[in-house]
Design a protein that fits this description.
The complex is a heterodimer of chains A (about 270) and B (about 325). Chain A is α/β, with parallel strands linked by helices. Chain A is about 25% helix and about 30% strand. Chain A has a single domain, classed as Rossmann fold, CATH 3.40.50. Chain A has helices at about 45-60, 75-85, 100-110, 135-140, 195-205, 250-265, and strands spanning about 5-10, 15, 40, 60-70, 85-90, 120-125, 145-155, 160-165, 170-175, 180-185, 205-210, 230-235, 245. The N and C termini of chain B lie far apart (about 70 Å).
Chain lengths: ~270, ~325
Protein backbone atom coordinates (compact mmCIF):
# COMPACT_ATOMS: atom_id res chain seq x y z
CA UNK A 1 0.00 0.00 0.00
CA UNK A 2 2.77 2.41 0.92
CA UNK A 3 4.49 1.82 -2.41
CA UNK A 4 1.64 2.46 -4.79
CA UNK A 5 -0.72 4.53 -2.70
CA UNK A 6 -4.47 4.05 -2.49
CA UNK A 7 -7.05 4.47 -5.20
CA UNK A 8 -10.22 5.91 -3.73
CA UNK A 9 -13.61 6.43 -5.30
CA UNK A 10 -15.94 8.90 -3.59
CA UNK A 11 -19.65 8.82 -4.45
CA UNK A 12 -21.29 12.20 -3.94
CA UNK A 13 -24.80 13.60 -4.39
CA UNK A 14 -25.92 17.07 -5.43
CA UNK A 15 -28.81 17.96 -3.10
CA UNK A 16 -30.89 20.99 -2.16
CA UNK A 17 -30.08 22.62 1.17
CA UNK A 18 -33.35 22.31 3.08
CA UNK A 19 -32.42 22.43 6.78
CA UNK A 20 -32.69 26.22 6.84
CA UNK A 21 -35.08 26.70 3.92
CA UNK A 22 -38.83 26.79 3.72
CA UNK A 23 -39.96 24.04 1.36
CA UNK A 24 -43.17 23.49 -0.58
CA UNK A 25 -44.72 20.45 -2.23
CA UNK A 26 -45.05 20.92 -6.00
CA UNK A 27 -48.11 20.46 -8.22
CA UNK A 28 -47.40 16.74 -8.86
CA UNK A 29 -47.86 16.14 -5.12
CA UNK A 30 -44.89 13.77 -5.22
CA UNK A 31 -41.91 16.11 -4.99
CA UNK A 32 -40.88 19.47 -3.56
CA UNK A 33 -40.55 22.70 -5.51
CA UNK A 34 -36.88 22.97 -6.37
CA UNK A 35 -36.91 26.55 -7.67
CA UNK A 36 -35.20 28.96 -5.31
CA UNK A 37 -33.39 26.26 -3.36
CA UNK A 38 -29.62 26.27 -3.13
CA UNK A 39 -27.99 23.01 -4.24
CA UNK A 40 -24.66 21.80 -2.93
CA UNK A 41 -22.73 18.64 -2.16
CA UNK A 42 -24.64 16.43 0.32
CA UNK A 43 -23.30 17.13 3.81
CA UNK A 44 -22.03 13.63 4.68
CA UNK A 45 -20.49 13.28 1.20
CA UNK A 46 -18.53 16.47 1.86
CA UNK A 47 -16.91 14.77 4.86
CA UNK A 48 -16.35 11.58 2.79
CA UNK A 49 -14.57 13.58 0.11
CA UNK A 50 -12.39 15.36 2.68
CA UNK A 51 -11.48 12.00 4.22
CA UNK A 52 -10.51 10.63 0.77
CA UNK A 53 -8.29 13.61 0.06
CA UNK A 54 -6.61 13.24 3.47
CA UNK A 55 -5.88 9.56 2.80
CA UNK A 56 -4.41 10.47 -0.58
CA UNK A 57 -2.23 13.14 1.01
CA UNK A 58 -0.94 10.67 3.58
CA UNK A 59 -0.44 7.54 1.47
CA UNK A 60 -0.43 8.78 -2.11
CA UNK A 61 -2.79 7.47 -4.76
CA UNK A 62 -5.79 8.99 -6.48
CA UNK A 63 -9.33 10.18 -5.80
CA UNK A 64 -12.16 9.90 -8.31
CA UNK A 65 -15.45 11.66 -7.51
CA UNK A 66 -18.58 10.10 -9.01
CA UNK A 67 -22.15 11.35 -9.02
CA UNK A 68 -25.50 10.38 -10.52
CA UNK A 69 -27.33 13.54 -11.49
CA UNK A 70 -28.16 16.16 -14.09
CA UNK A 71 -25.72 18.67 -15.58
CA UNK A 72 -26.29 20.99 -12.59
CA UNK A 73 -24.45 18.43 -10.46
CA UNK A 74 -21.23 19.55 -12.15
CA UNK A 75 -20.92 22.30 -9.54
CA UNK A 76 -20.68 19.63 -6.84
CA UNK A 77 -18.09 17.72 -8.90
CA UNK A 78 -16.12 20.96 -9.45
CA UNK A 79 -16.06 21.43 -5.70
CA UNK A 80 -14.66 17.89 -5.32
CA UNK A 81 -11.99 18.60 -7.95
CA UNK A 82 -11.07 21.86 -6.24
CA UNK A 83 -10.73 20.05 -2.93
CA UNK A 84 -8.27 17.53 -4.31
CA UNK A 85 -10.12 14.91 -6.38
CA UNK A 86 -8.12 14.01 -9.51
CA UNK A 87 -10.99 13.00 -11.78
CA UNK A 88 -14.75 13.32 -11.86
CA UNK A 89 -17.47 11.23 -13.47
CA UNK A 90 -21.08 12.31 -13.89
CA UNK A 91 -23.65 9.61 -14.66
CA UNK A 92 -26.54 11.16 -16.51
CA UNK A 93 -29.41 9.70 -18.50
CA UNK A 94 -33.05 10.57 -19.05
CA UNK A 95 -33.94 7.07 -17.81
CA UNK A 96 -32.31 7.66 -14.37
CA UNK A 97 -35.19 9.84 -13.11
CA UNK A 98 -37.21 8.26 -10.29
CA UNK A 99 -34.31 6.01 -9.25
CA UNK A 100 -34.32 5.04 -5.56
CA UNK A 101 -31.24 4.10 -3.54
CA UNK A 102 -31.17 0.61 -5.05
CA UNK A 103 -31.22 1.85 -8.65
CA UNK A 104 -28.58 4.49 -7.83
CA UNK A 105 -26.36 1.78 -6.31
CA UNK A 106 -26.72 -0.29 -9.50
CA UNK A 107 -25.75 2.72 -11.65
CA UNK A 108 -22.72 3.45 -9.46
CA UNK A 109 -21.75 -0.23 -9.44
CA UNK A 110 -21.69 -0.48 -13.21
CA UNK A 111 -19.76 2.74 -13.53
CA UNK A 112 -16.98 1.87 -11.09
CA UNK A 113 -16.66 -1.93 -11.25
CA UNK A 114 -14.00 -1.75 -13.97
CA UNK A 115 -11.93 0.91 -12.20
CA UNK A 116 -9.05 0.06 -9.87
CA UNK A 117 -9.85 0.95 -6.26
CA UNK A 118 -8.91 0.08 -2.70
CA UNK A 119 -11.58 2.10 -1.00
CA UNK A 120 -15.01 3.48 -1.87
CA UNK A 121 -16.21 6.28 0.38
CA UNK A 122 -19.63 7.91 0.46
CA UNK A 123 -21.85 9.71 2.95
CA UNK A 124 -23.82 7.74 5.53
CA UNK A 125 -27.07 9.31 4.37
CA UNK A 126 -28.41 11.79 1.85
CA UNK A 127 -30.05 14.94 3.15
CA UNK A 128 -32.90 14.70 0.63
CA UNK A 129 -34.25 11.13 0.67
CA UNK A 130 -32.42 9.91 3.79
CA UNK A 131 -32.31 6.39 2.35
CA UNK A 132 -29.09 5.28 4.10
CA UNK A 133 -28.71 2.43 1.65
CA UNK A 134 -26.55 3.28 -1.37
CA UNK A 135 -23.16 2.51 0.23
CA UNK A 136 -23.88 -0.95 1.65
CA UNK A 137 -25.86 -2.03 -1.46
CA UNK A 138 -22.97 -0.91 -3.64
CA UNK A 139 -20.65 -3.02 -1.47
CA UNK A 140 -22.91 -6.04 -1.90
CA UNK A 141 -23.02 -5.58 -5.68
CA UNK A 142 -19.21 -5.24 -5.74
CA UNK A 143 -18.98 -8.30 -3.45
CA UNK A 144 -16.77 -6.46 -0.98
CA UNK A 145 -17.33 -5.73 2.74
CA UNK A 146 -18.66 -2.46 4.12
CA UNK A 147 -18.96 -0.45 7.31
CA UNK A 148 -21.58 2.28 7.73
CA UNK A 149 -21.76 5.43 9.88
CA UNK A 150 -18.00 5.69 10.17
CA UNK A 151 -16.51 8.30 12.54
CA UNK A 152 -12.82 7.36 12.30
CA UNK A 153 -10.65 5.54 9.73
CA UNK A 154 -7.20 4.05 10.29
CA UNK A 155 -5.62 2.25 7.35
CA UNK A 156 -3.31 -0.71 7.71
CA UNK A 157 -1.93 -3.31 5.31
CA UNK A 158 -5.01 -4.58 3.47
CA UNK A 159 -7.39 -3.54 6.24
CA UNK A 160 -9.24 -0.52 7.53
CA UNK A 161 -9.84 -0.17 11.24
CA UNK A 162 -12.88 2.05 11.67
CA UNK A 163 -15.06 3.39 14.44
CA UNK A 164 -18.78 3.14 13.73
CA UNK A 165 -21.19 5.51 15.44
CA UNK A 166 -23.77 3.73 17.61
CA UNK A 167 -26.49 5.39 19.65
CA UNK A 168 -26.07 7.61 22.71
CA UNK A 169 -22.44 8.60 22.08
CA UNK A 170 -21.16 5.00 21.97
CA UNK A 171 -18.97 3.79 19.09
CA UNK A 172 -17.73 0.38 18.03
CA UNK A 173 -14.33 -0.42 16.55
CA UNK A 174 -14.50 -2.76 13.55
CA UNK A 175 -11.84 -4.12 11.22
CA UNK A 176 -12.77 -4.43 7.55
CA UNK A 177 -10.78 -6.11 4.79
CA UNK A 178 -9.90 -3.94 1.79
CA UNK A 179 -11.20 -3.15 -0.73
CA UNK A 180 -14.26 -1.99 1.15
CA UNK A 181 -17.09 0.55 1.05
CA UNK A 182 -17.20 2.89 4.03
CA UNK A 183 -20.08 5.31 4.60
CA UNK A 184 -18.94 8.40 6.46
CA UNK A 185 -20.76 10.34 9.17
CA UNK A 186 -20.60 14.10 9.60
CA UNK A 187 -17.99 15.30 12.07
CA UNK A 188 -15.30 12.75 11.08
CA UNK A 189 -13.02 15.62 10.01
CA UNK A 190 -13.13 19.31 9.23
CA UNK A 191 -13.73 19.78 5.49
CA UNK A 192 -11.23 22.28 4.11
CA UNK A 193 -12.05 25.65 2.69
CA UNK A 194 -11.80 25.82 -1.09
CA UNK A 195 -9.93 28.83 -2.43
CA UNK A 196 -11.05 30.76 -5.50
CA UNK A 197 -7.78 29.73 -7.12
CA UNK A 198 -8.55 26.09 -6.40
CA UNK A 199 -11.97 26.40 -8.01
CA UNK A 200 -10.45 28.14 -11.04
CA UNK A 201 -7.89 25.39 -11.44
CA UNK A 202 -10.63 22.79 -11.14
CA UNK A 203 -12.51 24.39 -14.03
CA UNK A 204 -9.79 23.05 -16.33
CA UNK A 205 -10.18 19.45 -15.17
CA UNK A 206 -12.43 17.26 -17.28
CA UNK A 207 -15.72 15.82 -16.06
CA UNK A 208 -16.43 12.55 -17.82
CA UNK A 209 -20.12 12.09 -18.63
CA UNK A 210 -21.55 8.59 -19.04
CA UNK A 211 -25.07 7.42 -19.87
CA UNK A 212 -27.13 4.24 -19.58
CA UNK A 213 -25.59 2.44 -22.55
CA UNK A 214 -22.03 3.47 -21.63
CA UNK A 215 -22.24 1.60 -18.35
CA UNK A 216 -23.99 -1.45 -19.78
CA UNK A 217 -27.35 -1.20 -18.02
CA UNK A 218 -30.81 -1.44 -19.56
CA UNK A 219 -33.87 0.72 -18.96
CA UNK A 220 -35.38 -1.89 -16.67
CA UNK A 221 -32.43 -1.62 -14.27
CA UNK A 222 -32.86 2.07 -13.53
CA UNK A 223 -35.50 4.72 -12.85
CA UNK A 224 -38.84 3.60 -11.39
CA UNK A 225 -38.66 0.28 -13.24
CA UNK A 226 -35.41 -0.62 -11.52
CA UNK A 227 -36.33 0.73 -8.08
CA UNK A 228 -37.69 -0.91 -4.98
CA UNK A 229 -39.89 1.96 -3.92
CA UNK A 230 -42.01 4.46 -5.76
CA UNK A 231 -43.41 7.63 -4.20
CA UNK A 232 -47.22 7.75 -4.37
CA UNK A 233 -47.78 10.99 -2.49
CA UNK A 234 -45.96 13.64 -0.49
CA UNK A 235 -47.59 15.51 2.39
CA UNK A 236 -46.88 17.71 5.38
CA UNK A 237 -46.25 15.53 8.46
CA UNK A 238 -49.13 15.36 10.93
CA UNK A 239 -48.51 17.43 14.04
CA UNK A 240 -47.72 15.58 17.27
CA UNK A 241 -48.10 18.58 19.54
CA UNK A 242 -49.13 21.84 17.88
CA UNK A 243 -47.15 24.75 19.21
CA UNK A 244 -49.04 27.85 20.30
CA UNK A 245 -47.43 30.62 18.28
CA UNK A 246 -46.29 33.75 20.10
CA UNK A 247 -46.59 36.84 17.94
CA UNK A 248 -45.62 40.47 18.25
CA UNK A 249 -42.53 42.64 18.27
CA UNK A 250 -39.30 41.00 19.53
CA UNK A 251 -39.82 42.84 22.87
CA UNK A 252 -43.38 41.56 23.19
CA UNK A 253 -42.31 38.05 22.29
CA UNK A 254 -39.48 38.16 24.84
CA UNK A 255 -41.88 39.42 27.53
CA UNK A 256 -44.34 36.62 26.77
CA UNK A 257 -41.60 33.95 26.89
CA UNK A 258 -40.44 35.23 30.27
CA UNK A 259 -44.05 35.24 31.49
CA UNK A 260 -44.50 31.60 30.45
CA UNK A 261 -41.26 30.53 32.12
CA UNK A 262 -42.22 32.48 35.27
CA UNK A 263 -45.69 30.95 35.37
CA UNK A 264 -44.05 27.52 35.54
CA UNK A 265 -42.06 28.64 38.57
CA UNK A 266 -38.78 28.33 36.70
CA UNK A 267 -37.59 31.88 37.40
CA UNK B 1 -49.97 -18.84 7.16
CA UNK B 2 -47.98 -15.75 6.32
CA UNK B 3 -45.29 -14.84 8.80
CA UNK B 4 -43.85 -11.52 9.94
CA UNK B 5 -40.28 -11.58 11.25
CA UNK B 6 -38.94 -9.03 13.69
CA UNK B 7 -35.17 -9.06 14.20
CA UNK B 8 -34.36 -8.55 17.88
CA UNK B 9 -31.68 -5.97 18.55
CA UNK B 10 -29.60 -6.29 21.68
CA UNK B 11 -26.35 -4.81 22.87
CA UNK B 12 -24.20 -5.36 25.94
CA UNK B 13 -26.72 -7.71 27.51
CA UNK B 14 -29.80 -5.55 26.96
CA UNK B 15 -32.63 -5.87 24.45
CA UNK B 16 -32.98 -2.45 22.83
CA UNK B 17 -36.31 -0.55 22.88
CA UNK B 18 -36.67 -0.62 19.09
CA UNK B 19 -37.26 -4.38 19.33
CA UNK B 20 -40.40 -3.95 21.44
CA UNK B 21 -41.59 -1.05 19.28
CA UNK B 22 -41.30 -3.24 16.15
CA UNK B 23 -43.03 -6.14 17.90
CA UNK B 24 -45.94 -3.89 18.80
CA UNK B 25 -46.37 -2.76 15.19
CA UNK B 26 -45.72 -6.30 13.96
CA UNK B 27 -48.49 -7.65 16.17
CA UNK B 28 -50.99 -5.10 14.80
CA UNK B 29 -50.06 -6.03 11.25
CA UNK B 30 -50.45 -9.75 11.91
CA UNK B 31 -53.94 -9.10 13.25
CA UNK B 32 -54.87 -7.09 10.17
CA UNK B 33 -53.62 -9.57 7.60
CA UNK B 34 -54.00 -12.78 9.60
CA UNK B 35 -50.36 -13.73 9.90
CA UNK B 36 -48.07 -15.05 12.62
CA UNK B 37 -45.52 -12.93 14.46
CA UNK B 38 -42.05 -14.39 14.92
CA UNK B 39 -39.09 -12.76 16.62
CA UNK B 40 -35.65 -13.74 15.39
CA UNK B 41 -32.96 -13.66 18.06
CA UNK B 42 -29.29 -14.16 17.24
CA UNK B 43 -26.68 -14.15 19.98
CA UNK B 44 -24.15 -16.08 22.01
CA UNK B 45 -25.99 -17.06 25.19
CA UNK B 46 -29.35 -15.49 24.61
CA UNK B 47 -31.87 -17.80 26.32
CA UNK B 48 -32.84 -15.19 28.87
CA UNK B 49 -33.58 -12.70 26.09
CA UNK B 50 -35.57 -15.44 24.34
CA UNK B 51 -37.77 -15.89 27.43
CA UNK B 52 -38.39 -12.13 27.63
CA UNK B 53 -39.25 -11.93 23.94
CA UNK B 54 -41.56 -14.96 24.08
CA UNK B 55 -44.13 -12.70 25.78
CA UNK B 56 -44.28 -10.53 22.68
CA UNK B 57 -44.61 -12.99 19.79
CA UNK B 58 -46.04 -16.32 18.76
CA UNK B 59 -42.59 -17.77 18.14
CA UNK B 60 -39.01 -16.97 19.05
CA UNK B 61 -36.43 -18.36 16.63
CA UNK B 62 -33.24 -18.55 18.67
CA UNK B 63 -29.87 -19.14 17.04
CA UNK B 64 -26.86 -19.21 19.33
CA UNK B 65 -23.26 -19.11 18.16
CA UNK B 66 -20.11 -17.61 19.68
CA UNK B 67 -19.66 -15.79 16.34
CA UNK B 68 -22.95 -13.99 17.01
CA UNK B 69 -21.86 -12.60 20.38
CA UNK B 70 -21.49 -9.05 19.09
CA UNK B 71 -23.30 -7.56 16.15
CA UNK B 72 -21.49 -8.15 12.88
CA UNK B 73 -23.38 -7.48 9.66
CA UNK B 74 -21.50 -10.21 7.80
CA UNK B 75 -22.40 -12.94 10.31
CA UNK B 76 -25.97 -11.68 10.69
CA UNK B 77 -26.44 -11.50 6.93
CA UNK B 78 -25.40 -15.11 6.42
CA UNK B 79 -27.64 -16.47 9.16
CA UNK B 80 -30.63 -14.35 8.16
CA UNK B 81 -30.28 -15.22 4.46
CA UNK B 82 -30.63 -18.90 5.31
CA UNK B 83 -33.60 -18.25 7.61
CA UNK B 84 -35.40 -16.16 5.00
CA UNK B 85 -34.83 -18.70 2.26
CA UNK B 86 -36.20 -21.40 4.52
CA UNK B 87 -39.22 -19.57 6.00
CA UNK B 88 -40.07 -17.06 3.23
CA UNK B 89 -41.60 -14.54 5.68
CA UNK B 90 -43.89 -11.94 4.14
CA UNK B 91 -42.00 -9.20 5.97
CA UNK B 92 -38.74 -8.81 7.88
CA UNK B 93 -38.59 -5.82 10.24
CA UNK B 94 -35.18 -4.49 11.31
CA UNK B 95 -34.53 -1.37 13.42
CA UNK B 96 -33.37 1.75 11.61
CA UNK B 97 -30.47 1.97 14.02
CA UNK B 98 -26.73 1.95 13.54
CA UNK B 99 -26.99 -1.85 13.66
CA UNK B 100 -29.90 -2.03 11.20
CA UNK B 101 -28.48 0.34 8.59
CA UNK B 102 -25.28 -1.74 8.53
CA UNK B 103 -27.26 -4.92 7.89
CA UNK B 104 -30.53 -4.38 6.01
CA UNK B 105 -29.36 -2.88 2.68
CA UNK B 106 -26.75 -5.53 1.85
CA UNK B 107 -29.03 -8.32 3.10
CA UNK B 108 -31.90 -7.13 0.90
CA UNK B 109 -29.63 -6.65 -2.12
CA UNK B 110 -28.10 -10.11 -1.74
CA UNK B 111 -31.54 -11.75 -1.56
CA UNK B 112 -32.92 -9.44 -4.28
CA UNK B 113 -35.75 -8.45 -1.94
CA UNK B 114 -37.10 -4.89 -1.91
CA UNK B 115 -36.16 -2.75 1.07
CA UNK B 116 -37.75 0.43 2.42
CA UNK B 117 -35.67 2.22 5.05
CA UNK B 118 -36.49 4.46 8.03
CA UNK B 119 -40.22 3.71 7.88
CA UNK B 120 -42.62 5.38 10.30
CA UNK B 121 -45.65 3.40 9.14
CA UNK B 122 -46.44 0.23 7.21
CA UNK B 123 -49.64 -0.89 5.54
CA UNK B 124 -50.77 -3.93 3.56
CA UNK B 125 -53.55 -2.91 1.20
CA UNK B 126 -54.83 -5.97 -0.70
CA UNK B 127 -51.83 -7.00 -2.73
CA UNK B 128 -49.93 -3.77 -2.19
CA UNK B 129 -47.34 -2.99 0.46
CA UNK B 130 -47.09 0.70 1.31
CA UNK B 131 -44.71 2.49 3.63
CA UNK B 132 -44.60 5.99 5.09
CA UNK B 133 -41.22 7.64 5.51
CA UNK B 134 -39.80 11.13 5.82
CA UNK B 135 -37.67 13.21 3.47
CA UNK B 136 -35.76 16.49 3.72
CA UNK B 137 -34.90 16.15 7.38
CA UNK B 138 -38.52 15.50 8.42
CA UNK B 139 -40.02 18.48 6.58
CA UNK B 140 -42.23 16.22 4.45
CA UNK B 141 -43.64 12.71 4.63
CA UNK B 142 -44.01 10.41 1.65
CA UNK B 143 -46.19 7.42 1.12
CA UNK B 144 -44.39 4.96 -1.12
CA UNK B 145 -45.38 1.73 -2.80
CA UNK B 146 -42.91 -1.11 -2.47
CA UNK B 147 -42.25 -3.28 -5.52
CA UNK B 148 -44.28 -6.50 -5.35
CA UNK B 149 -42.27 -9.39 -3.97
CA UNK B 150 -42.58 -12.65 -2.04
CA UNK B 151 -40.86 -11.07 0.96
CA UNK B 152 -40.23 -7.47 1.97
CA UNK B 153 -37.53 -5.96 4.20
CA UNK B 154 -38.04 -2.73 6.13
CA UNK B 155 -36.08 -0.74 8.68
CA UNK B 156 -38.20 0.99 11.30
CA UNK B 157 -37.47 4.38 12.81
CA UNK B 158 -36.85 4.48 16.55
CA UNK B 159 -39.81 5.66 18.65
CA UNK B 160 -42.14 5.60 15.61
CA UNK B 161 -44.32 3.11 17.47
CA UNK B 162 -45.06 2.96 21.17
CA UNK B 163 -44.12 -0.36 22.72
CA UNK B 164 -46.92 -2.31 24.39
CA UNK B 165 -46.75 -5.59 26.19
CA UNK B 166 -49.29 -8.04 24.79
CA UNK B 167 -48.58 -10.86 27.33
CA UNK B 168 -48.32 -13.63 24.78
CA UNK B 169 -46.78 -16.96 25.51
CA UNK B 170 -44.64 -17.68 22.50
CA UNK B 171 -42.83 -20.87 21.76
CA UNK B 172 -39.02 -20.74 21.81
CA UNK B 173 -37.54 -22.70 18.93
CA UNK B 174 -33.79 -23.24 19.01
CA UNK B 175 -32.19 -23.61 15.63
CA UNK B 176 -28.63 -24.66 14.86
CA UNK B 177 -26.30 -21.94 13.63
CA UNK B 178 -25.57 -22.06 9.92
CA UNK B 179 -22.24 -20.28 10.38
CA UNK B 180 -19.73 -22.94 9.43
CA UNK B 181 -16.62 -20.95 8.55
CA UNK B 182 -15.08 -18.04 10.36
CA UNK B 183 -16.17 -14.51 9.57
CA UNK B 184 -13.13 -13.01 7.91
CA UNK B 185 -13.98 -9.86 6.05
CA UNK B 186 -15.34 -7.92 9.02
CA UNK B 187 -14.31 -8.23 12.64
CA UNK B 188 -15.77 -6.63 15.76
CA UNK B 189 -12.97 -5.30 17.96
CA UNK B 190 -14.71 -3.58 20.83
CA UNK B 191 -16.86 -0.74 22.09
CA UNK B 192 -15.43 2.74 22.34
CA UNK B 193 -16.92 4.84 25.12
CA UNK B 194 -17.41 8.57 24.67
CA UNK B 195 -14.74 10.69 26.40
CA UNK B 196 -15.86 11.72 29.90
CA UNK B 197 -17.58 15.09 29.57
CA UNK B 198 -17.33 18.11 31.79
CA UNK B 199 -21.03 18.93 31.69
CA UNK B 200 -23.94 16.60 32.32
CA UNK B 201 -26.79 18.14 30.33
CA UNK B 202 -29.14 15.36 31.42
CA UNK B 203 -29.00 16.74 34.97
CA UNK B 204 -30.00 20.31 34.03
CA UNK B 205 -33.50 21.67 34.77
CA UNK B 206 -33.28 24.20 31.97
CA UNK B 207 -31.55 23.71 28.65
CA UNK B 208 -30.99 26.25 25.90
CA UNK B 209 -30.40 24.35 22.68
CA UNK B 210 -28.77 25.84 19.61
CA UNK B 211 -28.75 24.52 16.03
CA UNK B 212 -27.64 25.50 12.54
CA UNK B 213 -29.45 28.83 12.95
CA UNK B 214 -26.61 30.07 15.15
CA UNK B 215 -24.67 30.51 11.88
CA UNK B 216 -21.30 31.34 13.41
CA UNK B 217 -19.20 30.15 16.33
CA UNK B 218 -18.83 33.76 17.47
CA UNK B 219 -22.57 33.93 18.16
CA UNK B 220 -22.41 31.19 20.79
CA UNK B 221 -21.30 33.34 23.78
CA UNK B 222 -24.47 35.47 23.51
CA UNK B 223 -26.66 32.38 23.91
CA UNK B 224 -24.43 31.00 26.63
CA UNK B 225 -24.86 34.28 28.49
CA UNK B 226 -28.63 33.92 28.20
CA UNK B 227 -28.44 30.35 29.50
CA UNK B 228 -26.40 31.55 32.48
CA UNK B 229 -28.81 34.40 33.31
CA UNK B 230 -31.67 31.93 33.26
CA UNK B 231 -29.77 29.47 35.43
CA UNK B 232 -29.73 26.92 32.63
CA UNK B 233 -27.16 25.05 30.56
CA UNK B 234 -26.23 25.35 26.89
CA UNK B 235 -26.96 22.32 24.68
CA UNK B 236 -27.01 21.81 20.91
CA UNK B 237 -27.97 19.73 17.90
CA UNK B 238 -25.54 17.63 15.89
CA UNK B 239 -24.22 20.18 13.34
CA UNK B 240 -22.75 22.31 16.15
CA UNK B 241 -20.68 19.38 17.43
CA UNK B 242 -19.72 18.34 13.88
CA UNK B 243 -18.30 21.81 13.32
CA UNK B 244 -16.34 21.55 16.54
CA UNK B 245 -18.09 24.56 18.08
CA UNK B 246 -19.22 22.68 21.20
CA UNK B 247 -17.98 19.40 22.70
CA UNK B 248 -20.02 16.23 22.14
CA UNK B 249 -21.24 16.14 25.76
CA UNK B 250 -23.56 19.05 24.84
CA UNK B 251 -25.26 17.16 22.00
CA UNK B 252 -28.97 16.30 22.33
CA UNK B 253 -30.35 13.58 20.09
CA UNK B 254 -30.15 9.94 19.07
CA UNK B 255 -26.37 10.00 18.71
CA UNK B 256 -26.00 12.25 21.76
CA UNK B 257 -27.95 12.55 25.01
CA UNK B 258 -31.62 12.07 25.75
CA UNK B 259 -32.78 14.91 27.99
CA UNK B 260 -35.97 15.67 29.90
CA UNK B 261 -35.53 19.10 31.48
CA UNK B 262 -38.31 21.29 32.89
CA UNK B 263 -37.64 23.78 30.12
CA UNK B 264 -36.04 23.37 26.69
CA UNK B 265 -35.64 26.45 24.50
CA UNK B 266 -34.60 25.61 20.94
CA UNK B 267 -32.88 28.42 19.04
CA UNK B 268 -32.46 27.88 15.32
CA UNK B 269 -33.06 24.13 15.52
CA UNK B 270 -35.16 22.84 12.61
CA UNK B 271 -36.13 19.68 14.48
CA UNK B 272 -34.71 16.80 12.46
CA UNK B 273 -35.97 13.56 13.92
CA UNK B 274 -32.57 12.65 15.39
CA UNK B 275 -32.64 15.76 17.57
CA UNK B 276 -36.32 15.54 18.49
CA UNK B 277 -35.84 11.97 19.74
CA UNK B 278 -33.51 13.35 22.41
CA UNK B 279 -35.68 16.20 23.73
CA UNK B 280 -39.36 15.72 22.91
CA UNK B 281 -40.21 14.56 26.42
CA UNK B 282 -39.07 17.82 28.02
CA UNK B 283 -41.80 19.32 30.26
CA UNK B 284 -41.98 22.64 28.40
CA UNK B 285 -40.59 23.29 24.93
CA UNK B 286 -40.26 26.73 23.36
CA UNK B 287 -38.88 26.89 19.82
CA UNK B 288 -37.61 29.92 17.92
CA UNK B 289 -37.08 29.39 14.19
CA UNK B 290 -37.50 31.59 11.15
CA UNK B 291 -39.04 28.77 9.06
CA UNK B 292 -42.76 28.56 9.93
CA UNK B 293 -42.81 24.97 8.69
CA UNK B 294 -39.81 23.80 10.73
CA UNK B 295 -40.65 20.35 12.16
CA UNK B 296 -39.59 21.52 15.65
CA UNK B 297 -42.93 23.38 15.96
CA UNK B 298 -44.77 20.06 15.79
CA UNK B 299 -43.11 19.00 19.01
CA UNK B 300 -43.17 22.29 20.91
CA UNK B 301 -45.56 23.90 23.39
CA UNK B 302 -44.77 27.39 22.17
CA UNK B 303 -43.33 28.58 18.89
CA UNK B 304 -41.86 31.83 17.66
CA UNK B 305 -41.45 32.35 13.91
CA UNK B 306 -38.67 34.90 13.91
CA UNK B 307 -34.96 35.34 13.40
CA UNK B 308 -33.44 34.03 16.64
CA UNK B 309 -31.01 36.96 16.79
CA UNK B 310 -33.90 39.43 17.12
CA UNK B 311 -35.19 37.60 20.19
CA UNK B 312 -31.94 36.95 22.06
CA UNK B 313 -31.21 40.47 23.25
CA UNK B 314 -34.71 41.47 24.47
CA UNK B 315 -35.05 38.09 26.14
CA UNK B 316 -31.74 38.59 27.93
CA UNK B 317 -32.86 42.05 29.14
CA UNK B 318 -36.25 40.81 30.34
CA UNK B 319 -34.69 37.96 32.31
CA UNK B 320 -32.12 40.23 33.92
CA UNK B 321 -34.82 42.78 34.70
CA UNK B 322 -36.84 40.14 36.46
CA UNK B 323 -33.88 38.79 38.38
CA UNK B 324 -32.77 42.30 39.30
CA UNK B 325 -29.45 41.86 37.54
CA UNK B 326 -27.65 44.41 35.47
CA UNK B 327 -27.68 43.76 31.73
Amino acid sequence: MAERGLNIIVCVKHVPETAEAEIKIDSTGKAIEKAGLVFDINECDDYALEEAVRVKEKFGGSVIAVTVGPEDADSTLRKCLARGADKAIRLTDATFGGSDGYAIAKILHNAIKGLPFDLVLTGALAGDDGCTMVGPILAELLRIPHATMVKKIELGEGVAKVNRELEGGLEEAVEVELPAVLTVQTGINEPRYVSILGIRKAMKKEIKVLGLADIGLSENDVGEAGSWIKIESMFVPPVEKQAEFIKGTPEEIAAKIVEIIKSRGLI
Amino acid sequence: MAEIFVLAEHRQGRIRDITFEMLTKGKKLTEQINADLTVVLLGKEAKEHARTLSEYAKKVLLIEDTKLENFNSEAYQRVLSNLINEHKPLLLMIGHTSFGVDLAPSLAASLKLPLATDCIDLEFDDETFLVTRQMYGGKVNVRARVRKAESYVVTIRQAAFEAQKPAMNGEIIEKPSSLAEEITKKRFIGYVLPPPGGVDITAADMLIGIGRGIKDENNIPTVEELAKSLGGVLACSRPIVDKGWLPSDRQVGSSGKTVKPKLYIAFGISGAFQHVLGMKNSDLIIAINKDPNAPIFSFSDYGVVEDMFKILSPLQSKICELKGQKT
